[in-house]
Amino acid sequence: MAYLEITLQVSDSNRPAAADVYTRYKKPFLDSIPGASGKELLIRDEDVQVLHTFDTTEQAQAYLTSALFTADVVGALKPLLDAAPDIRIYDTV
Fold first, then answer.
1. Residue spans per domain, the chain
2. Order of all β-strands in the sheet with 2-8
3. I need a surface site. Which of 32, 86, 90, 92 has the fewest CB within 10 A?
4. Cα(10)–Cα(82) distance, rounded to whole angstroms?
């Protein structure tokens, strides 16, 4: 299993809109992205994280170049972000 963690700097006023982006694209992510098995929104005072699960790290990396991510998700989130996202991929042993 692999995890894709995307940490977003989103102001309090933009958090509802960012949550809407998460909700809007969760089902298409799970239904159309190869190897995708889960997606969770984690909210902290200092940031918002989206944790994705995949079968492999290669599938997680491929998602980052998919049209769903690059055009839809990034396009919707870009005006809401205070800084560039921190993107990390983890593999489990």
1. 2-91
2. 36-43, 48-54, 2-8, 86-91
3. 92
4. 6
Q: In this structure, is the dihedral angle defined by the CA atoms of residues 58, 64, 67 and 69, taken in order, positive or negative? A: positive
Candidates 89, 78, 19; CA nearest to 52 is 89
User: Identity (one letter) of the amino acid at 36?
Assistant: A
CA 74, CA 57: separation in Å to the nearest integer?
20
Tell me the pLDDT tens digit for each residue of 44-91.
999 999 999 999 999 999 999 999 999 999 999 999 999 999 999 999
CATH 3.30.70.100 for domain 2-91, yes or no, is: yes
